[in-house]
Structures are given as C-alpha cells and as structure tokens.
C-alpha cells in the first residue's frame, strides 16, 4: 500500500515537472551538419558537427542568438580520447533533442527580450573552445583537432539559413562556450552585414589566471597544453600572441582589451567551477581538505573563506579589460554557481538571483537594447539572499580532471 502511494506521488511529480518544462521552454531536435565532413570540420572522432535551431517569428524573425554549449577542454591525447567516446567529442553520442529554456526559451513570460528570436545552440565536440585546427590525423588515435573549422562551417550554415539578413545578432555561450563567445566575438561580427547590431554574451566563460591553493599556476599550464595539442595559436588574437605566450592568450584577461564588439560578462564572483578547478584543483589538494568546502560554501573554514574573498578580488581585477569600455556590460553576482543564462531559475523567475534589483535577464536585455547601463557587481559572500545557496555545477560542465 505504502509503495503504491509513493509511486503515485512520483508519477504526479513527474507530470508536474513535464508541464512546468512545457510552459517554460521547448524541446528542439538536433541537426547534423553532414556537409561539413568534406571540409574536415568534424568532432574529435571525425563525426559531423551538430546544432539545434528554433526559428524566430514576428518581430524576431531577423534576430539571431547563436549560443555555444559548454563542457571543459582536453589538454592531451589521453583526455581527448576519453572525450572522443562521449557527447563532448562525438555527435554520435549526442541526444536527439535538447531543451531550450532561460535565455533560449520561446516563452515571452520567461524570456521577455529574446523569446521570438532565431535561437541556435551549437553543440561542443572539439575540446578547444572552437580554436583548434591540426591538419594531420594520427591513425592510431583517429583524433581530429578541428574546432575552428567547426565554428566556420556552422556559421556558414546559419548564414545560409537567413542569418546573413540579421538585424540583431548575439554570439553567446556557457562555460567553455562562454570562452568561445569571447575568443570569436570579433570574428562573428565580421561575418555579418555592416548594418547588423552585433554583440556578444559570455556566461561563466571569464576564466582567470590565478595561483591555486598550493601556490602554482595550475590552470596556466593546463591552458598552454590545450592550445599546443589543438594547434590553436594561429586562431587566437595576434594582438595578444605577438606579446604573450599562446597559452596566456586563451585567458580573456590578456586578450579582451582588443575586442571591438560590445561584450557582456555574466559570471559569479565565486564561480563554482573555477573554485573547484582553478583555485583548489585536486592536484593542489591531495588530502581533500577543500572537498567539503567546494561542495557547499557553508562548510568552509574562516581561512578558506578568506582565500575565496581574495580570489574574488583577483577576479574583479582581471575584468579590467572589459570594464574599460563603455559599450561593455556585466552581471557579477556573489552566488556559488556556474552558468546562469540557460537554467530558467537563474535567468528569469520570481526568485532568480538579483543584483541591484536586476535579474540576469533584465541586465542582459537592458544592455543589448541600451535601455540603461548594466554593470552590476554584487557585494561579497554571503551578502546576497537571492542566491539561495545554489550550486548548479552540473555534469554538463565537467571539471578539468
């Protein structure tokens, strides 16, 4: 009797969840770009790139959002081979449809400024934030490092589908996709007509080069390996690589000052992925002293919180190249979270995180349409009650190791 009641309750809960999802957004089928294979624009395993596309309508018919999926990077053959057999390295492993919510929702109530735009989600299967291009393919591994070619092929496809007539266009992305939006921002602008209003939005993609808790620059070495194995140097801004090592030019703080296209940064000052993988990666914490703290900031010791407050200061300082331009904007909250534009509850609901009485959706919309300046920077943790201790560092955005 008790088990049947539990099953009935679970079925009701599932039904309610599905109904809620239906009202907040929609499922969108995958499109495999088979024609890209002949151009060598392929995922790590040689399979075709992929995207999901929901057409715009009414006033949004000539407006475009191109949103890049996140999912970390691979920095050597071992980890690239691991990715090759997953959805992060092969379109053969990708689900046939994905859910559009938040920033990609088609519901005006939940996405008031962009609901009727053409909305595209580009799948991430190269492991270099779409910067790699190595012609040779090792016959033993069959690994293809072709991220830049994928980006070019997908953009060519979208231009043919009507983006070449865009009146408004945004290149955006989450996590490694957010870094893609920064690295490719000006290149995206150059693809579109001169009269198009083009801007870029990076969600949780402003990765910073700081010392980890052991005193090493772990992430700097990691990024250098990513750039080397994928042959990314030639696709990074020359204004940066002419002065600094290619690995450093993978960090926004060293190359963002050269970006001419307006850029908006959505990021937590205590980004949960960066805390776990840049500030306190496993290699720097072999005894696991930070394990509990990284799971929930309420578990952190006073000393650990002090270290994270210092990390926040370094993060804000690294934003200097973005804050120096009046055309740029930012929403920097004090939540412990990673990626806030796609999840509906962090983008726009009644209890979404707010800074200066603005949700992420309101801040991005005000900035894009130039209704008001959007440079929201939150106070220090744990000052913001709207954060509700969210931890959205889900499997979609894996750690380095």
Describe the structure.
There is one protein chain. This protein is α/β, with parallel strands linked by helices and 401 residues long. It contains 14 helices and ten strands. A ten-stranded mixed β-sheet has the order 4-1-2-5-3-6-7-8-9-10, with helices on both faces. It is globular, with a radius of gyration of 21 Å. The termini are far apart. Mean pLDDT is 93; it is low at 12-21 and 392-399.
Descriptive labels:
single chain; 401 residues; alpha/beta
Q: CA-to-CA gap between the ends? A: 45 Å
- In DSSP terms (H or I, runs of 4 or more residues), the helix count works out at 14
Sheet with the most strands, sense and barrel status: 10 strands, mixed
Which regions are unreliable across 5 or more consecutive residues at pLDDT < 50? 12-21, 392-399
SSE layout and pairings?
Blueprint: H1 2-24, E1 26-32, E2 50-54, E3 63-68, H2 77-84, E4 97-100, E5 118-122, H3 147-160, E6 168-174, H4 176-183, H5 185-191, E7 197-203, H6 218-230, H7 238-241, H8 252-255, E8 263-268, H9 272-279, H10 291-295, H11 302-318, H12 320-323, E9 329-333, H13 344-347, H14 360-368, E10 375-377
